[in-house]
Amino acid sequence: MLHRILLLSAVLCSLAHVGIRPIILDEQNVPGYRSVLSQKGLDYSKGVGVQVLQKLLVNLNIPSLSGVFNEPVIGDVDWHLNDIKLISIDIGQSSVTPNPNSGITVQLSNVNGQVNSNWDYTRRDWPHISGSGSAVTKITAGATMSFSVFVSNGQPQISVTSSSVSISNLDIQISGGASWLYNLFVNVLHDQIANAISNALRSAIQDNTQDNLNNILKTVNLKQSLADHLVFDAEFIPSPTYGQNSVSIPQLGRTYVDGSEGQFCPISECSFTPLPSDPSTTKMYEVYVSEYVANSFMYAANSSGLLAYEVLPKDVPASSLFKLNTSTFSAWVPALQKLYPNTAMSIVASTTKPPLATFHPKGANVSVAGSAEFWVHPDNAPKRLVFTIIGNGTIGTAASLNGWNLVAKLGDPTFTFDLSYSSIGDFDPQTLRAALRFLLNYGIIPGINSKLAQGVSLPTLQGVSFTNPSMTWSNSYLSYRYLGEVLPLVYCVDTPPP
């Protein structure tokens, strides 16, 4: 119903008018990204919500009415109005407005509907004259609803803070009955019928809106499992605020090793810069993703051992002229072939500290510090470490949108390195540049890219879809925007959420 509105607006949002400047936050609540729904997005969502609201209210049952009416000619008459039901409704106009620091208000006007009912009466004194018939009531009404959003244990919840329905015009037509009966409905029962209809509409709108919205919000996937026991945490951060023409909400966007929820990247290593809070375009939906999201992932990946690789001879493509043995390496380190002739080798590469991503208008760079251990595997003897290279490098990174997934890919690296250990004597490590590039191109980078290709699904709602995405890189964050359709959340009316 207006579910969509509030759902998409109040659920994906929070507005704070701040500039871009470094700050220190509680490490438990560092917002990694911020979602913003513009007024255009709110208006479109409102249109979808109105359609669902109309479907929810059709066939609304209204409590029966009864009383005693004194007619001068026949005396006291007991009357009843039963089977009161709203059989049609058309919402002519609607608007949705963010209220700074309080929530969202939805207004409906020129709401036209028809209410059918059955009536009957019985004269109290003898003879007990009675009669019955039907009534058709045409109404014109307006409604106002205000919503607030709060966060409980990272889960967004919606509360209807106020609602009102006012009936500006009510026209009653009855079948059968004398003139005194018509006067009863028009003059005596007019206000009672109007109050009964407005109260029923207000209760239905408030109860259905709040319950359905919160059921929908339960479908938001706030935590998802990533590769190798990593968990992406997108819990909402209290408390949402609202601007004049948009709503937004910050979310964590951090990654940790499964089973170690309290051990995530500290701000001292994963720096944080506040994200924009206003939409930068006229598109419906915009998400700002900070460096923190990338750096938190790499911190957890480093802690879990995900960034350690062993390259074995079998990992080298059969078509490659490069073979992982001492015969090949003798071209760069002649002592290897002399000490271990025709011996298989392996390389164990790992990061020595978490990689660090830097976003800029042309893309992103990842700074990496690592080591590569070179081992020989003599026949019938334990493997032996022959030398270790340590180095630093920078890797260009590209990001793209795959549906609702944000995916990344590492490019070609540039690096410098030194010899850290050798059991075969000193040598110039620069001669190994080709071998190290092979290690990066066939081992480390493909391994990381296979994980990055899985992407991270930012939380959305079942049945909601935005189209025509675009992406922009900026200093310390990237943003992607959507313009298109919000598909109806049919299940919020027809079936319960899964």
UniProtKB/TrEMBL annotation:
<dbReference type="Pfam" id="PF02886">
    <property type="entry name" value="LBP_BPI_CETP_C"/>
</dbReference>
<keyword id="KW-1015">Disulfide bond</keyword>
<dbReference type="InterPro" id="IPR017942">
    <property type="entry name" value="Lipid-bd_serum_glycop_N"/>
</dbReference>
<feature type="domain" description="Lipid-binding serum glycoprotein C-terminal">
    <location>
        <begin position="279"/>
        <end position="482"/>
    </location>
</feature>
<keyword id="KW-0732">Signal</keyword>
<dbReference type="GO" id="GO:0005615">
    <property type="term" value="C:extracellular space"/>
</dbReference>
<protein>
    <submittedName>
        <fullName>Bactericidal permeability-increasing protein-like</fullName>
    </submittedName>
</protein>
<dbReference type="InterPro" id="IPR017943">
    <property type="entry name" value="Bactericidal_perm-incr_a/b_dom"/>
</dbReference>
<dbReference type="InterPro" id="IPR001124">
    <property type="entry name" value="Lipid-bd_serum_glycop_C"/>
</dbReference>
<dbReference type="InterPro" id="IPR032942">
    <property type="entry name" value="BPI/LBP/Plunc"/>
</dbReference>
<feature type="domain" description="Lipid-binding serum glycoprotein N-terminal">
    <location>
        <begin position="37"/>
        <end position="258"/>
    </location>
</feature>
<dbReference type="GO" id="GO:0008289">
    <property type="term" value="F:lipid binding"/>
</dbReference>
<feature type="signal peptide">
    <location>
        <begin position="1"/>
        <end position="16"/>
    </location>
</feature>
<comment type="similarity">
    <text>Belongs to the BPI/LBP/Plunc superfamily. BPI/LBP family.</text>
</comment>
<dbReference type="Pfam" id="PF01273">
    <property type="entry name" value="LBP_BPI_CETP"/>
</dbReference>
